[in-house]
Amino acid sequence: MTLRNAIDQRFFVDPIRCIGCKSCMQACSECATHRGKPMIHLEFVERGFSTQTVPMVCMHCENPTCAKVCPADAIKRTEDQIVQSSLKERCIGCKNCVLACPFGVPRYYPEIDQMLKCDMCYDRTSVGLKPMCATVCPSEALFYGTLEEFESRRKGRPVNSFQFGEQEITTRVFLVLPEEEVSLRMDVIAHMDARFDSDAFDHIDPFGHLEPLPMQGGGV
Amino acid sequence: MSDLPLSRQELLEQFGPTLRYRPPGGFDQQDDYEKLVPTHCCFCGQQCGIHLKVKDNAVVGFEPRTDFPFNKGKLCPKGVKRYLQGSHPDRLLHPMKRTEKGFVRISWDQALEETVSKIREIQDRYGRDSFAMLSGVSLNNEKSYLVGKFARLALQTANLDYNGRLCMVSAGAANKKAYGIDRASSSWEDIAKAKVIFVIGTNIAECFPITTDYIWRARDNGAKLIYADPRMVPMARTADLYLPLRPGSDSALLMAMLHVIIRDGLTDQKFISEHTVDFEKAAAEVKDATPEWAAKITGVPAEQIEKAARWYGEAETGMILHARGLEHQVNGVKNVLCCANLALATGKIGREGCGHSTITGQGNGQGGREHGHKCDQLPGARDIENPEHRAYIAKVWGCDESEIPRKGLSAQEIMNEIHAGNIKGLLSICFNPLVSLPDANFTREALGKLEHYTVIDFFLSETAQHADIVLPGSLHEEDEGTNTSCEGRVIKINQAIDPPGEAWQDWRILLDIAERLGRGKYFRYQNAQEIFNELRLASRGGTADYSGITWERVERENGVFWPCPQVSEKGKETLDASELDSLHPGIPRLFEGGQFYHMDKKARFTPTQWSESAEVVDSEYPVWLTTGRVISQYLSGTQTRRIGPLVDQYPHPRIEMHTRMARQLGIAEKEWVTLETRRGKITLRSMVVNTIRPDTVFVPYHWAGKQSINMLTQRALDPTSKIPEFKVSACKVRKATEDEIREAVEAESWTSHIERLPERYGLDDRRSELTR
What we know:
- The complex is a heterodimer of chains A (about 220) and B (about 775).
- With about 220 residues, chain A is an alpha+beta fold.
- Chain A has helices at about 5-10, 25-30, 65-70, 95-100, 120-125, 130-135, 145-155; strands spanning about 10-15, 40-45, 55, 105-110, 115, 140-145, 155-165, 165-175.
- A 4-stranded mixed sheet of chain A has the order 6-1-8-7. A two-stranded antiparallel ribbon of chain A has the order 2-3.
- By secondary structure, chain B is an alpha/beta fold.
- Chain B has 28 helices and 30 strands.
- In chain B, helix 9 links the parallel strand 10 (about 225-230) and strand 11 (about 240-245).
- The two termini of chain B are about 40 Å apart.
- Chain A: Pfam families: Fer4_11 (PF13247).
């Protein structure tokens, strides 16, 4: 694959599709240069209230903040627009990158006194393969392909421009937003019959001692 | 024999589970692997394609296999890390005998001879059926077929059953009744083409994650997703319509949906009249099953039930998917029949974008039950009580028909009879009933009553720890053969490495025992392919007809769907692979043109009446208990509880409960909670969430000992499928006492043994472990 083709390949993160399975993390740790260490992570948005999870990969910014704040010049961006993990020889473990990244991606590992983060499986993508995480992702919450390919077969609005206060950031990785506003009711009670705590279960009344359920029973 | 031969500490140190994090030789070995072996994942019925990296006769890593059409490289975490079970420190490497000093190494000759003499002794004293066999559907088709023949002709016992009994048998029984055949109606490609997808009783994201891609492909094309489950599982979170039905109320929901479909004229009358029978009877039974009636039973608002029925009924195409949530019940068969009634009433079966499928949980759950290690079936899904079927198989086997035992007991019934003292001996292969059967304390008592128990396995499972003789068998990657996926696609498992140490391939062990029992004349195979070729012959003319399938075809075509009868170019029947070049294509989508597999080619509606579960909540046990899986573990955890990265994902079972229940009981997140049923109690940490019904708690079942939720589940069986009622029990919940917490903390320490901490991240020190 030529460099041009490699650049045409885009990376898409679609949190709506994420099923929290951690295939991406497990596969990331198997990438040839990662040696058992996952360089991406998965966030539970707020498990108590939702099963929503988000895989966190490096967004590979055009003008990466992590590299800008690195006093040791340990973070390099390659010609094909991949922001590499820190160079072991240079990283001084200061965590500036961890604090500065607006997406919260870099992780500092005290055991090796080094920052590690997603390098988009550079050993694979640089030779025309897909990153491990996007290859295995069961639901295609992580997708690797061209923008045209994505738009021809997928719903959702891919964006790669973000505003953080005064800072505008363009990324190589696209975040997929819903095409329309999504209203998700994440408490099961909101989907249950309003009679749940009275006549429906009055012969058992396991929760008679609970406060009354909200009187709603409408559709989604 | 109920006491363990060693202390738990000694068993843990000798046999694990030991957590393994790195491939043999470390990650550097992955760089210069010698070969990539195309095969499949062993950890569920989706059978994803995968490449295994092999070096020095060891599996050292994996590579996605993007050429396999089902998963195109996609894998769940179990698939990614499955390679770590090879060269595992817990692997059984030589035969062992139980002594007062624990398990001691013995020779194969001694192990086999002692097994055979015990079989003879017990059968001479108590009759042939007093020696039972339990099998597993981790076994490929060849081994499943062989086990069926082995139990009937070598052991000469009727009492053979398999752990698929704890999986899909309710769906299988219902499918046979409704459609005349026990298989998913369509390939998964039809999911992607459906306009509405109705999922009930399955946590697809965690149990069958590759299926989510098919659903999303349909949704990208505008399909609606209806999801019914007591928990708002990850796919339910995104559904267009979510129905939070309470455990055990499935058929009420489904009956009400049929009621609405009939009431609103959404039936396909042409399809019904031309291709089905008994519609009127089924319609009569749902006449009073209004959404309002079902709402009271299910807790799902009536208008939501109406909407689900209309969406499904009005859509041009539609798919119904379910799994154990619907099937693991005493009403499991009825529940599946209700789904079939919906599919048939709307004519949404046998055409593109339509279908009704169960999702297979176990590796070879589909193929495993087709070829004869199910207590009531002979190869080809033949009926063991049918004289013609018996005669055909007797001819293939070269025995007298009378030599084939009749229908035997199902898995739980076998355990019941062991407990009652009527079955005295047991041979098991790849089945861990102490973790996977309900009412585990009962199972433990039963094992203690056996006069002899020989186990064939590759790790010493919790059940195998009670064995007298342990025979080390083969892992998935140490043998070759075929499996049948959830779609009905027969696929090829390729051997990647040889069995280590003195371990043998399972089929070789069975052949040796048969020989020593004096029944070797029925088991003259040189290799697994010869077994498959006999399976083809034995299945010919059965509903599960594999006779047109050869290993070569399976490899060449990336799988072949059954039924696939043998048809040669010259029109004559043949089993010769060389003559199969004008091949029967196999059948990805069943029932096209409304042709079903009953004699009259018509499908059957089944009138169903609402009935409650075997156990319902009351004032003493007011909470519904339901059980299930987490994505990082597989079945009884014999394999996956030894793979470190998978254990780390979900180290211990937790009691999932709604915020409201937790608040009322004064329970905080991660606090110790005691759960009690009429069978026992368990103390685990809580998981407090809003994504489960407030009258229900959920606990995953993959763990053993005092972390086993199957200590609490009940042995009630579906009358037809004999599947236990795993998914519905009545329980009570409270904060744990100090003593219970102490015991639970101790139990956690027994769940795994981390052998080499620094290897976890390839680091030189242990700081990362200690600071986590």
